[in-house]
Task: structure prediction
Amino acid sequence: MSREHLLTAEPTHSVWNRDLDPRLMIRSGDVVRMECVDSSGGQVKPGSTVDDFLKIDRMKIHALTGPIAVEDAQPGDVLQVDVLDVAHKGWAWTSVIPGLGFLEERFTEPYLFHWHLDGDLSRSLEPAVVPLRPFCGVMGVARADTGEFRTRPPGPFGGNMDVRELSAGATLYLPVLVPGALFSAGDAHAAQGDGEVCINGMECPADSTFRFTVHKGQPLAGPLIEAAPRTGEDGPAWVVVESGEDAFETAKVATSRMIDLLVERWSVNPVHAYLLCSVAMKLRLSQVVNRPMVTVSAAIAKSILPERRLF
Result:
């Protein structure tokens, strides 16, 4: 029988390290509600000024909740993470940081903007009315390599992917790289555009609820998402996520992984899979600011393929 757990945010961690002691041990099928502070580690608060923001400890960026160890998860398995809920707490912030962002040459002055979050939208930036779609920008398992690694670059382990499709109703599949998987999450965004071009989404604290399931002996090259439908947006889709230092080459790898998925799971002829990607796949830049890595998402709508359970 599955169990339900609560994991408070503190103490957070801001590095990937396979030797971190797990804060929680669970079984496959268990549900965990994780309290997550904002990406500043709670240093930015409603009413903080630009001067306050410039003084925060950057080593606390991406203050993550976890790690969570899953019994019987071993390298070569897949960890399925069902996103049951991501609930914001009514406020968020977005910044401009000199030297960072996609247009760093144009926007050179520091700036801090505060958002009021009203249910499923924000009217803070008039005249725009921004729909909210909360998700965790960082969701990942411990890296295979030994040592401490900053959380900014994403990779095959997931991590700082900033893929907006990971909202409630989505499922994330990750390769297990170390015993127990050691899952952590944080960096919640109440909303984010593809690219996250100014360096931030709507950075916010959130309570995130996940169900964890282990699939034994299921090799996976990198993160795969089963995206949920959203009113007024794209329908449910299969999304391959790939990160790398060269956007062009990363897009090629994501496309090739999608072709492999179609061949292996739907028995599509490889050249036909290539054609299908050309006419139906959406190739997106999910983030372009986590230097040196960019993240590319390749998505195909579930509606055009026979229904499948992949794991």
Notes: The longest helix spans residues 247-266. The longest strand covers residues 78-88.
